[in-house]
Amino acid sequence: MIQESSTDVLRQSMVDYLMRIIGLPDDEALAHEADDVVRALDARLEAERHAVA
Amino acid sequence: MSAIVDADSPILRAVRTHTQAENASSFLALNTGNSVFTAPGSDGVIVYRRTGRYAVQLGGPFAAPDAYDTLLDRYLEHVREQGLRPVGVQLQRHDAERYAGRGFTVNQIGASWAVSLPEFTLRGSRFMQLRNKISRAFRNGLRVEEVPAENCREALAAIDDAWLGSKGEQARPLEFLVGQVGGDAQRHRRLFVGTIDDAPVAYISYSPVFGSRAGWMHDLSRRVPSGSPGLMEAINSFAIERFREEGVQWLHFGFTPFTGLDEGNELPGHSPSFQWLMHFLWEHGEGLYPAQTQLAYKHKWAPDATLPEYVAFDGGASLAAFAHIFRACNAF
């Protein structure tokens, strides 16, 4: 699902996860899900940067 | 800087001596509530706070150049053995490059701001609004004095209570990456208090800054919400004149997250998503930290230096690690 998301959806998801982690800072499963989103967005933004270059 | 004459604390000795990173906030290492890591045979200290499953480190190691890597290795081993994940904040460029070289993901998180005092003047049109604000505070009866903190505990407590009360029921005073008044380190700080009709209305605490930009850092500042406009500006202008008379070279305004962001400051291997998040929080992160308000105050003084500050993630960029920086600061 993360792979198919648009860049803006991933960005919004990153913000949402940050807010959820602030609400549940000790939830490790939530932290791992957030890591997945960050990795996916990193890959997407790197790809976009290379495409522009 | 003659106020700092003793070196009875190993933390103070380390932040005064090992200044190669030029961390203007290094005196925060002496805050009560910090944990300090040292290792036998390694000249230096690492300062951190444990919060949740994270160890949040203030700056890099304050260590001799030949002890930097060893101390950091032992610290990382120490916190990992305890099941903690390390994350560093307020790393300076010097530290950031070292951490990136070790495989940390390092991103700019904000900047600190500083004014060169020898050339500083409030003359000229760029400072007209600031001058007017300062004049208004003094016309409203403000008097400013530099005082020992132990002589005005009740006054400071009254200001703190009024300040916190104005922030709403959920308000929490920030810690760790902000200054303190009191404790063993107080004799090294300077305190300027404003009164109107003998009632305390505001104060600014300044902490020492070491290194090539030595001077003072405009640190903890609070005011009563019902006071005159321009209280902080007037107190700071008073302190600036005092510092200039003493020949102090730099006034630092400290770190503000999400500010001073620049692509050119990023290091190879940084996280582009985290870089984007910092820009997003600058625009929309008021609820997490009022960066725009804080920077607006610092910009009033036309800073001469913008110094990028970094976060270092152990492995990939992590939202949980980032959140725990704010948790360590008592933000939530």
Count of alpha/pi helices of chain A: 2
Helical/strand content category of chain A: mainly alpha
- Tell me, briefly, the overall form of chain B: globular
* Helix share, percent of chain B: 25-40%
Question: Uncertain regions of chain B: pLDDT < 50 for 5+ in a row?
Answer: 1-6
CATH class of the largest domain in chain B: Alpha Beta
Average pLDDT value of chain A? 92
Q: Report the CATH architecture of the largest domain in chain B.
A: 3-Layer(aba) Sandwich
**Beginning-to-end CA distance, first to last residue of chain B:** 36 Å
Shape descriptor of chain A reads: elongated
Q: What this model shows, in words?
A:
The complex is a heterodimer of chains A (53) and B (332). With 53 residues, chain A is an all-alpha fold. Chain A has one domain. In chain A, helix 1 packs antiparallel against helix 2. Chain A is elongated and about 40 Å long. The termini of chain A are far apart. With 332 residues, chain B is of the alpha+beta class. Chain B folds into 2 domains: 164 residues, Aminopeptidase, CATH 3.40.630; 139 residues, 3-Layer(aba) Sandwich (Aminopeptidase). Helix content of chain B is 31%, strand content 27%. In chain B, strands 1, 2, 3, 4, 5, 6, 7, 8, 9, 10, 11 and 12 form a 12-stranded mixed β-sheet that branches. In chain B, a hairpin with a 2-residue loop joins strand 1 and strand 2. In chain B, helix 4 crosses helix 6. The relative contact order of chain B is 0.19. The N terminus of chain B is likely disordered.
